[in-house]
């Protein structure tokens, strides 16, 4: 409460609509009840509608009859009147006179910009000038200009500030610097004088509603005179337009100026708190990308706070790490470059060569490559709306403090020794192994990637791992690999392989009867395919592997069974050959893998995943002590099978496996590849035959098992290279076998 009192002391005149018909607390309680457990901070991407607004729209649409406005019926005339009123409301909001401006409805801002770009009469005398910080939708207009011989160039606009940090209002205080001019080819000079802006646009296409008359079998068309009708192709979204007035009612009730003051107070408060954060060594935590004043009198602060976070050693936290952890805390925000490449490069200090190098390294929009060569490739963006509250901002501040400022005590105890493997000699490891006090508790095989597995007492090994483990997968008809991340219901598909009969049995609650497939027969197969996948694990030499798979496809009857099971068209394929064909480093250079002849199935990162029963027990103790964080109905503990391990061991100390470099189970030698990076898949659980999702156990793991953006639990194993030759077709793993290990 003291923090809020301090906030209100500074921002009380601005925050919460003190002179409005409703306070911010009343607005949230009556109009945004759905935000009870969610902190929504992406209003610049898409703000939220109020529940009262939707009730008014629903009442309007269920009590009125709105017809297509391209007619003369009473219902059509009603629609035309509503559309006309909506245009005027937009113009009034923008203080635009209908004598000088027209309101054209499009599907969005991008469509409006595209309309201008494709209809402007570009020529070699034209120049398209845009700012470095413009959105991609503005940059896209450049293509129309350059293709028609026009010049294009970007400008930087910098506003001078006083010594106290306040922006100057004088026009002379704005400095404009021009970037190089771009041209592609010459085009014919546009003849004629320039007139009114709308008439300047030369529209080619016409459609229903944009013409006064046309003749089908000769070249004749007479376009409508109205600017709006000229550019609105086809039937406009008149039901959406009819709803505009209900949104403007909120604007007019609260007033735009009060909304701006409210939002500004939250943005200013957040900026000050973030800039005040310091690590234990005194280094700052947060870098803000902003040039506005932090004074309360500065009304140009806006609703957006863009930032990145640093570790105590000055290295960057990746923005995707921030986004993932925020999601676990019920905070929704946006990360990346926000479709704004110029601003991204400008504020992050990325040169043209950096941008091209990142692209060659495989970085594209919306991927997980958030830090490349020590530089962030994007940022974290928080944006407030008129319904945002102090509590929203405070929860984000507390999240940053607990996740990126406070250092979990376990980090200091030596846990999580390795996030990935390092090069080391493998000869003579037999003499370095000692009893770990552990034994093999269970063995689980997952024949179909992301489907349920089955446990056994003993199981044979193959060159790719446990025999038949992840040897099959499901692909959508568009080629996408199906996993529980996208299709959680896959966890309800049970599997079992009878080694004696050589039959794979599959069952699903969505399908009648059991599907049985002979694993040693080609009778079901109907062809081969080939595709490539990027390995998800960065190798110790700094390279990602590219794996070429040759797969066999199944007949339609089997594909239809799985399509019914997952609720979408898909195909079952089986790996018959795989090969590490090439590698790509994180700086874009190519190389060759060492194990080019090794066989891999469809495991994400390694052939084996090992989990310790004691580590799971320690996690459950932490979950039980934080029961208030759990969703209603979610279990306060997890079973080891929640992590989809192949091997579960028992008998040692919690997290002792983190430090293992090599181990032997029975007569088989393994090498540890380091910790397994966990994702939201472990948050799915089953309840009364349904797949549910909670924030646990990933949220708790994130509080003490985080290393450089990864949340690690369990270790990944492969056969030890130095002892691989000793692996034969008669090698088995058996429950109860002792585990020997050596640590770093």
Automatic annotation (TrEMBL):
Function statement: Sulfurates the molybdenum cofactor. Sulfation of molybdenum is essential for xanthine dehydrogenase (XDH) and aldehyde oxidase (ADO) enzymes in which molybdenum cofactor is liganded by 1 oxygen and 1 sulfur atom in active form.
Gene Ontology process terms (BP): Mo-molybdopterin cofactor biosynthetic process; monocarboxylic acid metabolic process
Name of this protein: Molybdenum cofactor sulfurase
Reactions listed under catalytic activity: Mo-molybdopterin + L-cysteine + AH2 = thio-Mo-molybdopterin + L-alanine + A + H2O
Keywords: Molybdenum cofactor biosynthesis, Pyridoxal phosphate, Transferase
Names of the cofactor(s): pyridoxal 5'-phosphate
Alphabetized InterPro entries for the sequence: Aminotrans_V_dom (IPR000192), MoCF_Sase_C (IPR005302), MoCo_sulfurase (IPR028886), MOCOS_middle (IPR005303), PyrdxlP-dep_Trfase (IPR015424), PyrdxlP-dep_Trfase_major (IPR015421), PyrdxlP-dep_Trfase_small (IPR015422), Pyrv_Knase-like_insert_dom_sf (IPR011037)
GO MF annotations in UniProt: lyase activity; molybdenum cofactor sulfurtransferase activity; molybdenum ion binding; pyridoxal phosphate binding
Source domain of life: Eukaryota
Top-tier EC class: transferase
A Pfam family of this chain: MOSC_N
